[in-house]
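Same chain as my last thread, 81 residues:
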Amino acid sequence: MLGNRLPPFVREHYEHHEWRHASAILSQDFPDEWGDLLALLQELRLKKSWISVGGGNKSQLAAFVDGFLSRRGWIVSHAVV
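reply #2:
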């Protein structure tokens, strides 16, 4: 059950849904990445200024997510299928 895998803050502040046992797979097969995603959700505070700014390059929200994951060792990868 997804709700049992989420910390209280995430359960209380985000709408969450399970899809094809994704949380079971992530939490068991990729525990470090699962932990990073949960930490991201716990640290994220969406600011009005992030979404009221018009056009341009990368949004401040995207920059926050990228920076957070980059500091945890995530890298951009382009897969060719």
